[in-house]
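Suppose you are handed a protein chain with no further information: no name, no annotation, nothing but its sequence. What can you learn? This example shows the usual starting point.
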Amino acid sequence: MPPVPSAAEGAEAVDVTALLERGRTLATPVLKAVVDRLAPPMDTVAAYHFGWIDAAGNPADGDGGKAVRPALAVLSAQAAGAAAEAGVPGAVAVELVHNFSLLHDDLMDGDEQRRHRDTVWKVHGPAQAILVGDALFALANEVLLELGTAEAGRAARRLTTATRALIDGQAQDISYEHRERVSVEECLEMEGNKTGALLACASSIGAVLGGADDTTADALERYGYHLGLAFQAVDDLLGIWGDPEATGKQTWSDLRQRKKSLPVVAALAAKGAAAEQLAELLAADAKTDVDERTPSAGDLDTFSEAEFAARAALIEEAGGREWTAQEARRQYDIALEALDSVPMPAAVRAQFTALADFVVVRKR
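A reasonable first move is to predict its three-dimensional structure. Written in structure tokens, the prediction is:
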């Protein structure tokens, strides 16, 4: 992972775990109430996805994810001078959109595990994964618009724009898997859409609901967008070299799915024997591709662990791992610079910085 960044003054005193837990605690009761609006069996399927029940329908205390987005949403309300609670509808709306994307992504990618247990499509079938994902997206807009305020309308517009960008990014991600070459610029654009857009929205939506003007909201969006790029760069590192015990995914996860993630495209863009050998191997891999992508059929299922390890070693030798770690730090720096134009209490600024620190040094 990238080296620990030098935090802004006061950030080292922030308890990030408590900050994340605050966002989760404020958002979860509202999130559960909103999910309860869904017709059966979608309410149960959604509850399973969120980790509130197990596959048999029994209450569970599952891993609900890192809760970075809810934490950012309620913190952004405070950046606008409002109470943290003013950001809760935004936190819930963003979390609903995020989980809509996870349900669909798991199905499209054929991922059988998320957060150390079977994914929704694996347990309840592809149809339910699609329907529940669609329902969560609809609920996200409902949560905001039912507030009936001008600020809610502004927030809903930002959320809708971010969602469209997220979907664009997912479409780009899938199309890149079947191309031999993807440029670093194309990869960054895709990751900015797929991850940066929703984190940008999370970082500003609470401020909008709290009455912030567009200048303030736009600056917070820039923070979130570049934080999202840092987040995704770290995710790309974890997708190849992450510990399965920590990530909850298979070893060499992104290589198994032939993802053109940042370490891969950076390695391919480099010069040298390792980059050339990697390009030859990936070109040969592409010839084994199948015409139809299905959740039950992986393209590279016959590969041994040693073959994936060899590809990971070539990516590292060509410099892809180091370049991605440096890019995570660069995007982190840009994110913090965006906060400079936003007047806010020192304690709130320190919390934004601490969340950025957390994003670039996490292990899952």
